[in-house]
Amino acid sequence: MIATNYNSIQLIQTDGYMVIRNVFSAKEISSLRKTVKNHFKNQGLLANSGLTQPNAAVEVSDLGWLFYHPKILDVMRQLLGQEDIMFTSHCDIHCRTLSAWHKDDGMGVMEGGYFGFPAYDKEDCRVYKVALYLQDHAQNIGGLTVRKGSHKFAEVDKGEEVYIKTKAGDIVVFDVRLNHTGQQDILPFLWLEKPNFLLRKIMKKIFQTEAKQSKKYLKKLYEILFGERLSIFFTYGLPNDYTKNFSVNNMKRQLWQNKNANIFLSPATRQQFIKNNVLVAEEYFSELVNENKS
Ligand SMILES: O=C(O)CCC(=O)C(=O)O
Ligand SMILES: [Fe+2]
């Protein structure tokens, strides 16, 4: 039985997010960096100035262990307040991507979003995403910025802004309805906002390069100095209709992006979920198989 932590449950329900420190060891982070880098050597989709791989729980079988890691399952059981939890089969991995303010409830992707309707006032809508950055973001603003409490309303531009300083090994768990953004500028430092702009102007003059090209140089320079920005996002929820609808519709989005019909987890990963008493949303994916055949 898990020791339910009412403070954490209240916090995530009020603020819409929570930070948990030191979940993964340096060795685990290094192994995840290897897996993600290796995947992007010859796979992934070009998106947001970088590379992205939707449906990574299915597409990248070496990531399997992450989704049933005992610490992750423990955190999720604590935050969801019960033993019975469901894995949604959502996972996106990113390399060098930039981002802008958005929610992950799919309202911008399909009519009614992944839940089928705007679910901002629904208390038992509890679908939580793990944000795992594979490098430190404590001394820069390239990690996750959220708008506190914004999972309770539809407006994307509302809510108190909080930048979350994370170190590799920490995770942020957030409600998929929460307003959030990853790294927005090429060089993710607050004090560089003005110099960033000036630098681009100067480079344009010197090299006579277009803005897009000079941005590319700046990004490359940042990568040389600070390393490649890698991240993994994956999602669980209460075993109810909100989570099932989220999972089915989010899987549709992942398949559209990948232009394939790879729906199911590997037998080994699925077996581990069963062993750990985690319910899997893929039980409800059979309609997708039929849809994709027709
Ligand atoms: O790039 C980031 O750090 C954020 C990514 C994100 O919000 C997402 O995958 O939905
Ligand atoms: Fe997001």
Verbal overview:
The chain has 294 residues and is α+β, with helices and mostly antiparallel strands. It folds into two domains: 6-183 and 229-289, Jelly Rolls (Sandwich); 188-227, no CATH class. Helices cover 38% and strands 19% of the residues. It is built from ten helices and eleven strands. The chain has helices at 6-15, 26-42, 56-59, 64-67, 70-80, 193-207, 211-226, 241-258, 267-275, 286-293; strands at 17-20, 45-47, 50-53, 86-95, 127-133, 144-148, 160-164, 171-175, 180-181, 230-237, 279-280. The strands form two sheets. Strands 1, 2, 3, 4, 5, 8, 10 and 11 form an eight-stranded mixed beta sheet that branches. A three-stranded antiparallel beta sheet has the order 7-6-9, with no helix packed on it. Helix 6 packs across helix 7. The termini are far apart. Residues 102, 104, 180 line the site of fe (ii) ion (FE2). 2-oxoglutaric acid (AKG) is lined by residues 92, 94, 97, 99, 104, 144, 180, 182, 231, 233.
CATH superfamily of the largest domain: q2cbj1_9rhob like domain
Task: Report how far apart the termini are.
Answer: 44 Å
Beta-strand percentage range? 15-25%
Q: What's the gyration radius in Å?
A: 19 Å
The profile of the biggest β sheet is: 8 strands, mixed
Shape: globular
Number of domains: 2
Kindly state the mean pLDDT as a whole number? Answer: 92
CATH class of the largest domain: Mainly Beta
Indicate the low-confidence ranges by residue numbers: none
User: Number of DSSP helices?
Assistant: 10
CATH architecture of the largest domain: Sandwich
| Topology, number of strands | 11
The set of bound ligands, ions and cofactors reads: 2-oxoglutaric acid, fe (ii) ion
Order of helices and strands: HEHEEHHHEEEEEEHHEHHEH
Query: What is the CATH topology assignment of the largest domain?
Result: Jelly Rolls
Structural class: alpha+beta
Binned, the helix content reads: 25-40%
